[in-house]
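User: Quick sanity check before I run a bigger batch. Here is a single chain. Can you write out its predicted 3D structure?
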Amino acid sequence: MRSDIIKILFLGDIVGKPGRIAVQKYISALTDDKPDFIIANAENASHGFGLTQKNYNELLSYGIDCFTSGNHIWDKREIFQYIGEADKLIRPINYPPATAGKGYGIFETAKGNVGVVNVLGRTFMGLIDAPWQMLENAIEEIKKETQVIIMDIHAEASAEKICMGKYYAQKGVSAVFGTHTHVQTADEQILENTCAYITDAGFCGDTSGVIGMEYEASVNRLITAIPDRLDVADSGMAQINGVMITVNILTGQAESIKRINEQMIISEEKMIMKG
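Assistant: Done. Predicted structure follows.
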């Protein structure tokens, strides 16, 4: 590969232990196609809600270089105890300024620095600050050190993600990846001939349930309107969703994007039991 090209892997929302196992197996199998930098959304990595420090360290050991998140990052109370020291973990930038953690980071790689920004959507989501000026400021600061900027837009509405993708492509962002819905879209493309984009990268986790959670509890919520407890599905079969992109490290312009949608067996025993 050309020396001015950096290969970046972005993995969709990791859901629970099946997602963590699948990610470990997938990354360890990467040889010829090994990326220079790996990002994963980890807000659902600990039993489907939030991220414990133990699981944060576990995922780091797999070779992930940066974790983005979203509205569920606060679901495990211990996050407030370690997020200030978790230099690989980013929370959405548009929480109020006094919120623990950071909304963007700049990371070193063998090919050069990479900037990563996380933002939370506002349509059909909880109350959150408008991100526009915060993102303008972050992009300006990151561009002092690198032209490569990756943005995770954690949002419910596809239209909001598309609008933000087009807008920030014009602002010189290298890639805009949507997360949160856990359903991978098939609209990967290069916007403005410079910015890699997908409306939702999908999720990494069990294939048998509903967006990574058990089917029975999910359908009971719809039938009864009672908020039954949701547990992570665990059938022994998992999927990996995400994208692999290449970016010119000097200009920050994306040159390619490839959607990833693979399935794998993570537990023969559980598959037999389910059968």
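The chain has one domain: 5-274.

User: Great, the batch can go ahead then.
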